[in-house]
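Hi, here's the filled form for the chain we discussed.

Project: internal
Contact: R.S.
Residues: 631
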Amino acid sequence: MHLIFESVGSLSKFLLVFFKLLKFKVFYLNILHRSETKKNEIASYLKNQNIFPLPIEKAKSISPQADFALLDQDREMYGFNLNKKIYSDDDLKKICHFFSLGDNEIKKLRLLFQDFIYQKFSNISFPALIWSHIHPDKKVLLISYKITALYSNLKSKNIFIICLPVDIIFYFLKVFKNILFFPFSFNKRKKFVDKDSFNKSAAFVLHKGITYGAKHHFLSTGHLKKYDANNLYDKTLYYSEDKNSPLNKHNILHFDYDNFPAPEEDEKINWINLNFLKYSKTKILFDCARVSLSSLYLVKSLNGFIGWVLFLQRYKSYRIYLEVLKQFKKLKLAIIDYDCMCPKTLILALSARNIETVTVQERFSNMFYKSFANVIVDNYYVQSDYAAETIKGSDFYDVKRIVPVGLYKANLMEKFKGKNIPQEIVQAKANKKKVVIVLGYHSPNNWFESYPDPVVNWSAQIFFLNEVIKLSENINDVQFILRYKTLNWLKDKHFEDILNKINKTKNLSLSKEYSESFYSHKLCANADLVIAKYTSLADDCLAKEIPTLFYNYLHNAKSIFISLKEENFLPEDLVCKNYEELFQKSKKALYEDAENFKKKVEREKKKFFSTTKQTDIKNKLISDCMQIINS
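And the returned structure, exactly as it came back:
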């Protein structure tokens, strides 16, 4: 029997050692600690006891029935079915009024809970399911500290679940503590905001800063700290150049919901951390107590109890956001930076305050996912007519107005083509070489995070890099340039050998420029071919008819994105399932059948990325946003 612990901490590590002494095969998925140093200490201690994270990356072969498509895309809709099991439509109708919603708006609540349920469910249950397919003759015992694990109906005969609902126990202990010490607590949060900010009409609701690719730690001391910033691109799409416009960078509010530090280089920016604004704790406490009692009718069974607890957790978050937003009495518009990542409790609070929301479709592939990447918004600017029609019929989107406009980052590539060409491409062209940009996935920074990950683990990374090295050796009159979102993972000694191999390969280089915004797009705009593990940048390339191949296999899996193929997105002609296909299709795209390959890319663009009306996306967004503000 294999024991898989959902998580391990400083104390629970001894429990794992105890079961190891009883001759069980013992694994874990996550290490619970804020400190990276402590995480490494716990992992090293367990490693010395011959206890490792669940080694999915070390498996010889991962079944197509339990691959990345199952984990990330929820092909079988486990998460959504769990949602329906916990909440019936009648249950949702009864609690709509708590969120200022009508009985006909239960879809919004369904999606509110879906984000929370799917995240908790996928982190625990899916790795166990993958492992059970790798070892079909073994009994797998999943031990979880989260009550939602009770409903991990994984349709697998060899998985058994033990739930120790520590999360619920700690939740009620926290509630009891808040009530017990309430007379001694401060009534308001300490952070104050300049009074002028409360008179603004527009806010930019940011996901991790104004630059995509930046990183930070939120330390246990409460202090924010930046580290290893990678500027992939600046989020300037919604900014107006007019200094008097409410959408100008220095006039618009910047709402932060995940404790990200304000940009140090621009002190004039209106940066507001919503988590540290003042609000009445008294009001929140009594209101949550009232709602918890008046919603007890949900507790008709164990299912109902779980639903009730999840509801109370989400309601508290919503209620705090609502209280905070009441201070911004003139706010009319909220621009959502990342469509599916913004907390749904914040979205519903904005709606309750009659603040209209606007966002663009961030990733084309997300609309094919089941249970994951849900969107609630008033005005949704999507990437194509095809996307608009797909989203209209989706269970995972609740959108009032859909406007097909195109891919805003792809449109920038037209400006980069043949202009301000990156020096590494200039050098290759000077040597009369074609250029292939290879887009890879970054890897976890720690070995114990790599083990349970089926896709971005260290073994997959080294395998991928060896495949690229082999390709560059077999097509040696082409300059191959590797490009990643971040290179932080390369700091580990584990990658020293493969990095040396790259450095010794004459026609292969690693792009290291991360200070220039949209540099990755500049590389691709001037490439003869792009080879990509699936990413939104590859979508941008297809939309601009740049020859693109998709690397769709791993060292232990024959496919990564099955569900995208099931939707007829990523046709076989553009997908590589092994090295031979990668080699042959690369040659055809570069030399032997280049014209026909371009026609295939053109067909893909016309089907998935075309819009009836050509639009200047930035001007359209600013114009529409100003209409909302002025209405």
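Let me know if anything looks off before we file it.
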